[in-house]
Design goal:
Elements lengths: L3 E2 L2 E2 L3 E5 L9 E3 L2 E3 L13 H10 L2 E8 L10 H15 L3 E5 L15 H10 L7 E4 L2 H10 L2 E5 L13 E3 L2 H11 L2
Parallel strand pairs: 3-6, 3-8, 6-7, 8-9, 9-10
Antiparallel strand pairs: 1-2, 4-5
Length: 186
């Protein structure tokens, strides 16, 4: 959980990753991205495994933070969500996965754009949020990262109403985002 420096546990850094549209392919309808509702629709973008390995090699912990309101809306069984989480663990080696299964009417503290999922992981893992990153394809991802004190990267998937105008950096792919982190932190 981090090395000790003069009797204290040294803070770690993380790269927070939105799931759908960043790690996994969303279904696009009318210019908007939607999460898969069935396990057989759940697939990674090409090269994602290499990206997660690169994150780890740079000294960051990869952490998934994902809004999954379809659970609350009755469209996605929790068992299917857990199958998807298991695939993230097995295929990508991601051990810290946070899902907000509430919908916007629940007014919870974890649903992005609120930073609750990031803050919870930071407390559990002794993370230095000011030296961590949030990567997402929605403005709500960027808002959560900024609110938590992270640097942010917006992956432009050219979705309707998602502009990324408040992100620190904007790019077109996860590979490019990780290269930007490597360049910025070198």
């Amino acid at each position: 959980m981090g090395e000790r420096v003069k009797g204290k546990l040294k803070s770690q850094r993380a790269v927070f990753l939105d799931r759908d549209g960043v790690l996994t392919v969303s279904t696009i309808r009318d210019g908007k991205g939607y999460a898969p509702l069935k396990f057989d629709e759940f697939r990674f973008f090409l090269g994602v495994s290499n990206c997660v390995d690169h994150i780890k090699s740079l000294g960051f912990i990869p952490i998934v933070v994902s809004n999954q309101p379809d659970v609350a809306n009755g469209k996605l069984p929790i068992e299917v969500l857990e199958q998807m989480n298991q695939k993230l663990r097995e295929d990508l080696g991601i051990t810290e996965i946070n899902n907000c299964t509430h919908n916007s009417e629940d007014s919870c503290r974890c649903r992005k754009p609120k930073p609750g999922m990031l803050l919870d992981s930071a407390q559990r893992l002794n993370l230095d949020l000011n030296h961590s990153w949030m990567i997402g394809d929605r403005d709500s991802d960027i808002a959560a990262g900024l609110e938590a004190g992270c640097k942010t990267i917006f992956i432009n998937r050219h979705l309707r109403a998602e502009l990324g105008e408040h992100a620190h950096l904007v790019c077109e792919s996860l590979e490019e985002a990780i290269d930007l982190i490597a360049k910025y932190d070198s």
